[in-house]
Design brief:
The chain is mainly alpha-helical. The chain has helices at 11-23, 28-40, 47-60, 67-75. The protein is built from four helices and no strands. The relative contact order is 0.06.
C-alpha cells in the first residue's frame, strides 16, 4: 500500500471526519479511505433493489400518496 500526506486540512473538515469516524466506529485513517473509495469508485446502483427498498419505506409511512394526488398537485394554480 502507498502512503500519502494531506496538508492544510481545514479544521471544520478534520472535525467532521473525526465525528464520522467515531460514529462509524473506524479510525480516522479508515474513515478517510472509505470516503475516498466512495467518491473515486462509486458502487453501481441496483435499481430494482433500490426501488424495492423505497417502496418498503413508503409503505411504512403514515398516509398514502396516490398518483392522482400527485397529478392534482401539479395542476393546482395553473390555468
Amino acid at each position: 500500500m502507498t502512503t500519502i500526506t494531506v496538508k492544510q486540512i481545514p479544521t471544520r473538515l478534520h472535525t467532521a471526519l473525526k465525528s464520522r469516524a467515531k460514529k462509524n466506529k473506524r479510525s480516522l485513517n479508515r474513515e478517510i479511505i472509505e470516503c475516498l473509495e466512495n467518491i473515486v469508485t462509486p458502487q453501481k446502483l441496483d435499481a430494482g433493489k433500490f426501488l424495492a427498498e423505497v417502496r418498503e419505506y413508503r409503505n411504512q409511512l403514515p398516509g398514502k400518496l396516490t398518483d392522482k394526488m400527485i397529478e392534482n398537485a401539479k395542476t393546482v394554480g395553473r390555468p
